[in-house]
Design goal:
CATH class of one domain: Mainly Alpha
Helix content: 40-55%
Low-confidence stretches: 1-23, 56-66, 389-395
Largest sheet: 3 strands, antiparallel
CATH architecture of one domain: Alpha/alpha barrel
Number of helices: 17
Shape: globular
């Protein structure tokens, strides 16, 4: 069955016209977010390992080992590559970073393999055949922890990678159709009747009950993106239905200020815990998923996307522009003042009381710096370029 590939109007127009009852996101505002992301990535880059870390170097923490991850580096690369053609000279040498992330893959999980397939299909096709030939992807799907326990994010990354590999226009050395269909079936096994995905499918003695019932916003967005790309690459129309079910549920549950909440109850189809609300979800992960689905279906998600993005521009609970804080953190988050409130909300959701019905006593801003938190906004909006002056200052 053919997929409807109608092209919707762009999310951001040069004249920033109003849409769906709130101001459109300004082109210059998105460029500023992109510049902040590039500047942050420069502080997170380790030249020795050619990887990005998950915490910035700090003079008072010289004995704290920075956490380097292949996955976060690939997401950062995916985002930075979206700036290609914008005329900005960044400080990163892509071939060296690619050598680092495509190195020893003996311990790579299916999520890592999926992201590498995704990146190779889009930017280094010469590596794609090697990845497909040198790695037993079926064994990875059968035996890796992420696949055996049906982790939604792991399966989503793998499915998205297979979809990009299929649609890249290259002659793959192996047929990946059956592998993709099996991954799709595992992934949709985590989806509840209301469209929400649980964090994983297999229940373990310690935490499987909660993981098999609740899913984060990131679980939902990754699944939407993967299902959308799978539908287009393999012409499986029902996959778009699953993606639309999830997206519709998320948009219906979006906060009044555009918040994409933290945790959802897949069994009851409601918000299980509202905070923390992450800027990376607002300006990166959510737009990436919904823009992909919009392009594939023609459904208009501009209102939800724009409202979510404007949350970081000051239209939030504290009226704070998260781009202008001292830590320059678009990766900032807002969380409850009351420690443990998220657990109370989650427990009440089990009793049928949605978190949205519980008054918020107070929120505060926290700061974290993650390479993937900078990569996702660039992946969504990198094509709009960045403010040169801000980028230079950040780098």
């Amino acid at each position: 069955m053919e997929i409807d590939a109608r092209k919707p109007s762009p999310l951001i127009s040069p004249d920033a016209a109003a849409t769906a009852g709130f101001p459109a996101v300004e082109h210059s505002e998105i460029q500023e977010v992109n510049a902040l992301a590039v500047g942050a990535l420069a502080t997170l880059f380790d030249r020795k390992t050619q990887l990005f870390s998950n915490c910035p170097p700090h003079p008072d923490k010289v004995f704290v080992r920075e956490r380097m991850r292949r996955r976060d580096t690939v997401i950062a690369l995916l985002g930075l590559r979206c700036l290609d053609g914008c005329g900005f000279e960044h400080p990163f040498h892509f071939p060296s970073i690619e050598n680092a992330v495509f190195g020893d893959l003996r311990r790579a999980g299916i999520g890592d393999l999926g992201l590498l397939l995704w990146y190779a299909a889009l930017h280094t096709p010469e590596r794609l055949a090697t990845l497909l030939q040198d790695n037993d992807l079926q064994a990875a799907l059968d035996n890796s922890t992420g696949a055996r326990e049906a982790h939604t994010q792991e399966l989503s990354c793998f499915l998205a990678g297979l979809a990009h590999a299929k649609s890249g226009g290259y002659q793959a050395p192996i047929d990946i159709t059956d592998l993709a269909v099996e991954t799709y079936q595992k992934l949709t096994g985590n989806q509840g009747e209301d469209g929400i995905f649980s964090h994983r499918g297999v229940r373990t003695r310690l935490n499987g009950w909660t993981d098999g019932r609740f899913g984060t916003f990131t679980d939902q967005a990754y699944a939407i993106y993967a299902l959308t790309k799978f539908a287009g690459a393999f012409a499986v129309a029902e996959s778009l239905g699953a993606a639309l079910d999830c997206a519709s549920a998320l948009c219906a549950l979006q906060g009044s200020l555009g918040q994409w909440w933290w945790l959802y109850d897949a069994r009851k189809g409601c918000v299980a815990s509202r905070y923390p609300v992450l800027a990376v979800n607002q300006a990166g992960v959510a737009p990436a998923a919904l823009m992909a689905l919009q392009e594939a279906t023609g459904m208009d998600f501009r209102a939800a996307i724009g409202k979510g993005v404007r949350w970081i521009f000051g239209e939030n609970e504290l009226r704070s522009d998260l781009r202008k804080l001292e830590h320059r953190g678009i990766w900032a988050s807002m969380t409850h003042d009351f420690s443990g409130a998220e657990y109370v909300e989650t427990a009440l959701s089990v009793l049928g009381i949605s978190a949205e019905r519980i008054p918020v006593q107070g929120v505060r801003i926290t700061h974290e710096r993650f390479a993937d938190g900078c990569g996702w906004p660039l992946y969504s909006f990198g094509k709009f370029g960045l403010k040169t002056s801000a980028a230079v200052a950040g780098v």
